[in-house]
Amino acid sequence: MTTGEPLIVLDSVNKWFGPLHVLDDVSLSVGRGEVVVVIGPSGSGKSTLCRTINRLEPINSGTITFDGQPLPAEGKALAKLRSEVGMVFQSFNLFAHKTILENVTLGPVKVRKEKPAVARERAMALLDRVGIANQADKFPAQLSGGQQQRAAIARALAMQPKAMLFDEPTSALDPEMVGEVLDVMTSLASDGMTMVVVTHEMGFARHAANRVIFMADGQLVEDAPPAEFFANPRSERAKDFLSKILTH
Amino acid sequence: MSVLIDKFDVFAGGFWLTLQICVLAAIGALILGAIVAVLRISPVPPLRAVGTAYVNIFRNMPLTVVMFFAAFGLPALGSNADFLRIPGLDAIFNRLGTDLPYFRFALIALVLYTAAFVCEALRSGVNAVPPGQAEAARSLGLTFGQNLRYVVLPQSWKASIVPLGSVIIAMIKNSALVGFFGVVGDLSQTADQLTSAEGYAFVPVAIGISIGYLIMTVPLGALLDRIEKRQAVAR
Q: Can you tell me the distance from the alpha carbon of B104 to that of A88, in angstroms, rounded to the nearest whole number?
């Protein structure tokens, strides 16, 4: 599963929002092909952690390395790095003025300069894989939340990324649509994609993750395989958190 | 009221000249305003500072003062704004090419002043696009320019067009100042000419020039209303 050099390395990362210390000396490494699920109470910094990896959130101190290279500053090099890291957002963020197919082909055509026909063919294959090939010519607003999120996953995959970041991908979905998105993510995980997933879906953490990271107050509190974490959380914070979410 | 009929050609001439300066100033202000807007939202801090400084200066200075600077400052610097004698364009807008530079000076002042407001109208449209759209574009690896061109601007113009229209209507009315800075024969200077020099009663003349401005501004306002209604339905 994990082979060679880790793909993503965070070393002593600190970030403040004004007086709020959202990331407090966070160090983490994610191996190639590894699926890391980040959980924790809201406001614990888990989304921020996810967003620092492709520098949507700049950090105040520490280093982040992706595929052996430190994250570059804003500019062409950063754009290139971002094109290699897929990102899926809580609110989908599909381009509202473009069809689903255009959403998926925009990156490959404009960033990678692929021929439109080539990009289109791969896009259709990806849409087929996530089960919405028949929606290709619709606009995002015409799709259900679950379909939109699957389209957003296809859009990220179209760049053939080395890793995928998921920032609470199912939190904005109606309950009956959560499963269809998690199914796509599970199949990606079993195909060996490197994934960092911020989620509240404990079922997904249990069966698809290699490691579970528990965060609280900006600190990385626990880092353990899911079976161990759910059976025997070591910290009081984690025990308290799990008792709150697992009693319902 | 006979002045409206007797001097119809004078009114018509004033209308035509005001329309010319407004068309030119609107084109200039839209182009310059778009450039300043791109500076103001650029990720490069010095460029942002230039854009912000521009808006702070020209939005906060009275147009009269900008006109003074253009009419007296440019000659003091030895410029007659001859770069605006654009071949071809000066055939249609013949005042661009005349030796008296006041039309060009007034045009420069109107463009500089209005561009600050155009910039802010465009920027309000950009701000109306949900930030997640630009974030998604950035995370795909699109550059700043590609992000603007393919994702943000196509969605922002809808929210910009109504405030932009208001800016252009204000500009048409502001153009009434140019007559006091040496531009002979525009709509507002026509009033001065007819009342002071030729002794016509003020009120009928004022009604005449008001009609002239309304012919330009009312249809523009109606057009904006229609666009706004169409957007409301689409929403």
A: 53
Cβ-Cβ contacts under 8 Å, B133 against chain A: 93, 95-96
Residues of chain B contacting A95 with CB distance shorter than 8 Å: 133, 136-137, 151
The shortest CB-CB distance from A54 to any of B132, B133, B139 is to B139
Q: Tell me the CA end-to-end span of chain A in Å, nearest whole number.
A: 34
Q: What's the pLDDT score for residue B90?
A: 77
Which positions in chain B touch A97 (Cβ < 8 Å)?
A: 154-155
8 A C-beta contact, residue B179 and residue B186: yes
**Model confidence over B26-70: pLDDT tens digits?**
999 999 999 999 999 988 899 999 999 999 999 999 999 999 999
Contact yes or no for A87 and B139 at CB 8 A = yes
Q: Which pLDDT score, from 0 to 100, does residue A124 have?
A: 97
Q: How high is the pLDDT of residue A248? A: 58
Q: What is the CA radius of gyration of chain A?
A: 18
Domains of chain B: 2-234 (1.10.3720.10)
Instruction: List the one residue out of A66, A64, A11, A3 whose CA is nearest residue A32.
Output: A3
CB contact under 8 A, B136 and A84: no
Closest CA to A238 of A202, A207, A193, A209: A202
Distance from CA of B32 to the nearest CA of A (A): 25
Which residues of B fall within a CB distance of 8 Å from A152?
Answer: 136
In this predicted complex, what is the ipTM? 0.91
Please determine, for residue A31, whether its predicted confidence score (pLDDT) is greater than 80.
yes
